[in-house]
Amino acid sequence: MKEDKQLLVITHISQLLDFVSGIGGFIVPLVLWLTKKDEVLGMDYHGKAILNFRISMFLYILICIPLIIFFGLGILGLIVVGIFYLIFPIINAIKASNNEPPNYPFSIQFIK
Description:
It comes from Polaribacter aestuariivivens. This is DUF4870 domain-containing protein. InterPro entries: MamF_MmsF. Keywords: Membrane, Transmembrane, Transmembrane helix. Helix content is 71%, strand content 0%. It contains five helices and no strands. It is mostly helical. The chain is elongated and about 50 Å long. The protein starts with a helix and ends in a 15-residue tail after the last helix. It has one domain.
């Protein structure tokens, strides 16, 4: 296995493609993880953390949608999730460049 910090950083930053394409922020990290998890040191761990974060945030969005209709609190929830979508990929890209493990709070462990 080789160490490739740049690819780990790109994998984290690629989540921001959601702001441009809608779904690219899930597909690009998924493809990078599936193709490079056996070749790049740390890609398996980082990829799993990213995908668990993405799936968790999607579920939180699904929970917020009915809350908009019933309580109006869903809008606040969507704003918070949007901030998480923007901030945590950047923070974890910086961590990946410093050889630190990623930390995505409120992430449910779907992929272990």
